[in-house]
Amino acid sequence: MAKLLDVRTIVHHLSVGLRYSITDADVNQPRPERIQSIYHEFAIKILGVPESSFTMLPTLDGIQDRDPDLHRKSDFLILLYTIMSSFFEDFGSLKLSMCDLVNPNPKNARNFLACLADFVHFYKFADDIFTRTQEQFAEHRKNIEVSESLMKRKERDLDNVKGELEVTNRRKAELDSEIERLAAKFNRLYAEESTLREEIMACIAQGEKIDGRKKEIEVETESTRQQIELLSEDLMPSAREVRDDIEQLRKQKMEYSEMSNNSRNVNARLIGQMTECGQLNINFEKYEVNLQKLHKLAEELKEKEKEYSYGKTESSDREQAINELHDKIEDVKTEMENGKEKHELAWTEQKEFLSQMEAKKQQVRADISRANKENTKVSAETRLKIKEVSDLKSERSKMQRDFERQIKEMTEQVETVILKHNKTMSKITKSMRKYATNLNEIENAVRYDPGQDKHDTHDSNSIA
């Protein structure tokens, strides 16, 4: 039995729910055309009965000689009676008669209208909840899509960081190759230094030998001159002896002349070798300067290798941070997938509930269509349907609360993960900047002047 509402409440619920003008007189002093009009609006707007269902009786659809215009009013009353009597029996435990449509009794009309008002009020409440739930679902769906877009953008940023890391690793390999080249050059120059030292010592020894040979020639020349003087004092008056002595002196003079030429040649070679020794000394001094530069460069390389080792440690930490970030992103993806599954489950349950409601609605329509043959229902079935409607209302409210709670939890989880992700990306950016600064210092340290390298090579060739 429907709850008997006061007249003002009945008028308010029906006017708002049906969007149709209803007055107190329609309840207290019902007229047939007004009652039929209210029932007609209720069947179309609330029960969803199409307008075409009020134009022709289903059982008379195939009769050829029947005039629709002549029977329009009677067909309308029969169809309206069939629909509304089935509704009142199912949801209000009320018995509608044709007299209630043609000559309505105020008391019965109020009971029927109270049943309609109660149902319209429930329908409006359920429709508002469904609309609000649909809007919330669309909003949360949009938030999830925004979060997924943000995750994709962060994945692209991570790919960019990985690309920069690969560029950094290639640059590191180039620096390692440059360090190896400089080390090889240093070893080569060090070996050339040893060779030059040996050549200088050999030149010095050769110069000492030349000086000794020069002194020996000078002693021999002085001895020859003294012998000439002695021979001049001891000349024999004999012409033969004089000729022999002259011939011997001529030979000795030629020998002395040859020895003098040899002495001049030796002196010239000695002067050339002394000049070369002087040039070697100059080149050796330049080489000493270059060697000092190389030693200094080697010390700087050792320092930069220490800094580079520190940079490698930072690079390893950065790679570890990137791996941790990737793990966190995977965790976020997992949480997002779990959230989506919960969301889809809630939406599936919501759709199932709506499907059940739609099935109930279709069942009512089916009952209305069968009302031409079955106009009575067992009271126990009516009470059972009313209980099912009440249970559905309770279940829908519970599902709505659970759905809102799940959406709120998922939103908080997404916001927390995004905040952690932003903090981690900030730390990685700082590490990348610091690492780039260290790399620039290493590049400036190992960068060499091609002109200076060419000059050092020219000096080495001159010494050789």
Structural account:
The protein contains nine helices and no strands. It has 464 residues and is mainly alpha-helical. The longest helix has 131 residues, at 239-369.
Tag the structure with descriptive keywords.
single chain, 464 residues, mainly alpha, Actin-binding Protein, T-fimbrin, domain 1, 9 helices, 85% helix, rod-shaped, disordered C terminus, coiled coil, mitosis
> What is the count of helical runs?
9
Please report the first level of CATH classification, the CATH class of the domain at 7-58 and 69-148: Mainly Alpha
So what's the overall shape? rod-shaped
Tally the beta strands. 0
Determine the CATH topology of the domain at 7-58 and 69-148: Actin-binding Protein, T-fimbrin, domain 1
Estimate what percentage of residues fall within beta strands. Answer: under 5%
CATH superfamily of the domain at 7-58 and 69-148: Ncd80 complex, Nuf2 subunit
Protein name: Kinetochore protein Nuf2 N-terminal domain-containing protein
Keywords: Cell cycle, Cell division, Centromere, Chromosome, Coiled coil, Mitosis
Subcellular location: Chromosome, Centromere
Main location: nucleus
